[in-house]
Amino acid sequence: MKDFLLRAYFGSHVAFFKVLPSLSGIACYCILFLIYRLLTHHLNRLQKIIQEDNFAIHLNGYLADLTKTVKLVKDMNALLSPIIFVLMTFWITGIFYNLSKLIFGNAFPDDLSFASTICNILSYSVQFLILLILSSEIPVTVSKMKSLVLQVPEDQFYYHWHVFPNKTTVPTVFLLIPKFDNFTDDVTVTAFGILKLNRNVILVSVGTIVTYELLLIQMLER
């Protein structure tokens, strides 16, 4: 009975620290990828609208649809935010812990433990990078929409405004650019609202890990 309880305990321990974070990470990847594909669809649609002669007339309907999508993405990011925070904390802690074990020469009783540590470092690092890459591409997609609008001459907006003064209200570039800036902030993925996930986080994380390991090595050499 005692052996059974010990096996159950260690089995649940392995499931919690190995299986659950990986499954949660995969679920986050799928949701973030769907968000990215959804915004990419709007980007492609905007490209087609701009190529049309009367593109400004279709912008109102496009912006209405994009606003609904951004609200949906913002709500989904709010749900993912605490999960992403926990996953990032777990992965970074795992990377620190396993890298620290590599520094100690007598930390591995056998080759299997050494191989397990290497696998953990690679696994945590890859999962962390995938999360950051997917998260950073989402606001970049909205920024590409802004760049497309900026490429359209302002006089074309005013041209459509004068041709159709009574039929519709056409947004100008001066109104569109702040709107896209707000959209970029709304779709940006955050970790518990504390940290915005973008490509700069990769450099900060790598720098922090390297600094920690160098300090640890210097302390051990004394």
TrEMBL record:
Keywords: Membrane, Transmembrane, Transmembrane helix
Domain of life: Eukaryota
Residue ranges crossing the lipid bilayer per the database entry: 20-39, 78-100, 112-134, 201-220
Protein name in UniProt: Gustatory receptor
Gene symbol of the encoding locus: AVEN_187591_1
